[in-house]
């Protein structure tokens, strides 16, 4: 079974939070309630919700401060509930990180529609980036297949070690971007702090021998003097 999305409701008016919780639960979400700002922040850390509904008038903290504090910690979507009137201007006028807002009294079905729409957008973006990651990279006469861990040059398979493959794939997925040896060490080997940057030099040389027409005058894996390396592609 699919895991349910978790929504945290930070709202001190019990009638409203109960109605919200029941309604969201009926509509395939998991919902939890915090009745003040401090509890809300604590529950956010504990529950790791996927979405937050935040009342702006709370007994212990200004909802806007709660919103800022949430935003300081992560980029979870926040929908603000505000009372009709001056709050609305405040919510709209200040760029403090809320994604959406509704004025009380609000329609439950509209609230649900907005939440659903958020997750639909989110899912389609996530799917698109998964697809991009698994796609074949085709650059000049090279084809790099991340799924199969295979590289071919002019249609002929090139035999690479796993790390050689990962280094080439990393540079090719960020073509024309220059990376220092320590950045590459960190990205591919994951131990920049203790690693020997010479490792990168050695792997670049090996890759050049395998994919460059003239390894001593590389056209693809270029050295950028004093900085590092890049995958060169017009
Ligand atoms: Ca309130």
TrEMBL record:
Residue span(s) of domain OmpR/PhoB-type: 134-233
Domain Response regulatory: 6-119
Entry keywords, A to Z: DNA-binding, Phosphoprotein, Transcription, Transcription regulation, Two-component regulatory system
Annotated region of DNA binding: 134-233
InterPro entries, per database record: CheY-like_superfamily, OmpR/PhoB-type_DNA-bd, Sig_transdc_resp-reg_C-effctor, Sig_transdc_resp-reg_receiver, WalR-like, WH-like_DNA-bd_sf
SUPFAM superfamilies named among the record's database cross-references: C-terminal effector domain of the bipartite response regulators, CheY-like
Record-listed 4-aspartylphosphate modification sites: 55
PANTHER family per the UniProt record, alphabetical: PHOSPHATE REGULON TRANSCRIPTIONAL REGULATORY PROTEIN PHOB, REGULATOR OF RPOS
Protein known as: Response regulator transcription factor
Organism: Paenibacillus taichungensis
